[in-house]
Write a structure and sequence with these properties.
about 250 residues
C-alpha cells in the first residue's frame, strides 16, 4: 500500500472532509452486533470516532504513524500502525470493518482473505469513499481544469478506481446497495485551497516540478469564480461497496 499522506498529515486532519451521519445510520442498521469494529486505513480517525459512539471497542489502523499522531483519542479506540493486508487481529473479531477513501490502494488478493479471517460470520464490510467535489458551474470549471488538465498525469493509477466509484473492483461478498448520499459543507475559498493542497497528485507535481500548481494564475482564476470572504456550499458525492461476509 502506498503512503501518500504522511508528509502532510496535519493538513489532512484539518482540511479533509468527513462522512455524513446518513452513512453511519445505514451501516449500523445493517450490523448484526456492536461489540468490536475495525476502521482500516483510518488516517486521522474520522470514521473511527463515529464508530466509537456505537461500538464497545474500535481498532483503528494505518500504515502512517504521522496520520495516527493527528487522530482524535477516545477511551474505546486503539490506534496502531498496521498494513491492511496483514492485520494482527484474531479469528472472528469484528462485527464491522470500514475503509474510508483508501481501499483503492489495497492488494485485494491479500486483503480479502484477511477480512474473511477477522470478520464474524455475517459481519459487514464497508469500502466507502467520495468523488470529486462540486460547488457551482464557474468554480467547477476551474477545479476540473486543475484535476484533469494540470494534474491528470500526476494522479496514481489507483485514482481511477475512485473516479469509477469502485465499480470495477472485485467484491466477493453478499452486496448491499448504498443509497445516494453526499457530504455537504459551507466553505470559504481558503478552506477549499487547503483541501486542494492535500491532493496526492499535487504533491507529485511539486516533487517533479519544484513548484506548486496552485500558482498565482490559478488562484486568481479561482477568485474570479469564488471571491474572498464568500461562503459556498461544497458537495462530495459518497459511494461505497457494502457487503456481508461469510454468508
Amino acid at each position: 500500500m502506498k503512503d501518500n499522506f504522511s508528509t502532510r498529515s496535519a493538513e489532512y486532519a484539518r482540511f479533509r472532509p468527513g462522512y455524513p451521519p446518513q452513512l453511519f445510520d445505514f451501516l449500523f442498521a445493517h450490523c448484526k452486533g456492536f461489540d468490536c469494529a475495525w476502521d482500516c486505513a483510518t488516517g486521522n480517525g474520522q470514521i473511527a470516532v463515529a464508530l466509537a459512539g456505537r461500538f464497545r471497542w474500535v481498532e483503528a489502523t494505518d500504515i502512517s504513524a504521522n496520520q495516527l499522531h493527528n487522530a482524535t483519542r477516545l477511551p474505546n479506540i486503539r490506534y496502531s500502525v498496521e498494513a491492511a493486508e496483514h492485520p494482527s487481529f484474531s479469528l472472528n473479531a469484528f462485527d464491522l470493518v470500514t475503509v474510508g477513501q483508501a481501499a483503492h490502494w489495497f492488494d485485494f488478493e491479500k486483503f480479502y482473505p484477511a477480512i474473511n479471517y477477522v470478520m464474524k460470520p455475517g459481519g459487514l464490510l464497508a469500502l466507502v469513499g467520495y468523488q470529486l467535489l462540486t460547488v457551482d458551474p464557474p468554480t467547477d470549471e476551474v477545479i476540473q481544469h486543475l484535476y484533469r488538465d494540470v494534474l491528470g498525469s500526476y494522479w496514481d493509477a489507483e485514482r481511477q478506481l475512485v473516479d469509477t466509484a469502485y465499480s470495477t473492483i472485485s467484491f466477493p461478498f453478499s452486496e448491499i446497495a448504498l443509497p445516494d448520499m453526499a457530504m455537504t459543507y459551507r466553505w470559504t475559498l481558503s478552506h477549499l485551497l487547503g483541501y486542494l493542497g492535500t491532493w496526492s497528485a499535487l504533491r507529485h507535481f511539486e516533487s517533479r516540478n519544484g513548484r506548486s500548481p496552485l500558482a498565482e494564475a490559478f488562484v486568481e482564476s479561482l477568485r474570479n469564480a469564488w471571491p474572498e470572504g464568500v461562503t459556498k456550499t461544497v458537495r462530495f458525492p459518497v459511494f461505497g461497496r457494502i457487503g456481508r461476509v461469510g454468508v
